[in-house]
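Q: How would the structure tokens look for this protein?
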Amino acid sequence: MEIKIEETEDTLKIIKSCRQELKWAFIIGIICNICLIYPLLKETPGELYFGFALFYTPIFLLIQCLFCYRFSYELILIKEDYIYLLNSFRKLDISNAKKFSTKNIIKISAKKFNGSILLRSHNIFKEAKPIKDHPNYKIHFYFKEVTEEYCAWGYEIPIEKAEEILDKIKIFLKDSENIQFEKSEK
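A: Here is the predicted structure in token form.
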């Protein structure tokens, strides 16, 4: 995982890129799909291949998404009085980003993230608990009730990087008195 911070006079750009991890997750997802498809195709008659392809396509995409979701490109762009948040698997395109006014932000914090649903144990009689203790964090944005209430950035980033990003945002938004910054407890 690579986190780049680019700062100019009027913009702050923070990019999380997991190019290598995404490539390996994609390959592992393809291998899992092949392991599922091959035995089924061996038993399927030739005239049913088209229907099988239509049936299996959503399952294929679901399995790929399961492996690749955590390794998407993520972007925070602070420009003028707006914050843009983007999560994408392709080239970063600011026109598809969520746009928020800095005046609507109440609090920005780096808090612990309990990981994906795959790393939790589920018991119908008890609450879901993490299987292992994740040392990973996210940058959380809390908004006024007029707009969205909450948004997060940085799927599973280390605490050192999360605090560094929080400090950069704090320095960049030093003119905004209405924003409260919180560091996490280790």
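Residues 22-69 form one domain.

Residues 113 and 137 are 5 Å apart (CA to CA).

Upvote if useful.
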